[in-house]
Amino acid sequence: MLCCGIRFSHGCGPSVPASLIKAVGPPVLVPSEVTSKDEFKKLLKDAEEVRVVRKDETAKVKVRTSKGLYTYKTTGEEADALVKGLKAAIVEF
Question: Biggest alpha carbon distance in the chain?
Answer without folding.
Answer: 59
